[in-house]
Amino acid sequence: MEVHTEIWWERLASFSSAFFRLALGASFLSAVADRFGLWGQFGQPNVSWGNFARFVEYTGRLNWFLPHPIVSALAVIVTFAEVLLGLLLLVGWKTRITALCAGILVMIFGMAMTAALGVEAPLSASVFSAAGGSLLLATCTRFPFSVDELIQRACKRKEARTDGNLSLRTGTSVARS
User: What's the pTM value of the predicted model, to 2 decimals?
Assistant: First the structure.
């Protein structure tokens, strides 16, 4: 019974890491899409900004202590970071470091929201949940349905071929750890 329970937990962990990775990546890209009006114009249901100018304005509200030129640059940098993190998470490449960077970015966003708008805003938007999930994803060791998994499999196949060739040349078997 214990073995079946352990397998069930391992499968749940694999599913959870893949689900969260894809959901977080899609969330980053969805937020960027909103900034460029891909979800519609401001005022339509579920549209937060509708254009980049409104996003720059929001960035300024959260970072009220920064001069406007820096706010504009910050809005561009954050947008670039969210596109990069979103794409890396969706394909699952360098997932651990990507998840760590995403967690740090979202945590900083949550702190800025808290300072500018109060604690209710980031809590209602699940910002700290996303940050915590990102940091938890960074601790995972397996990433199903990802480029990382494909690379790991290829390395194992190459290692197995190398071990096999070595044992054929020497006439001995190579112990596996």
Answer: 0.86
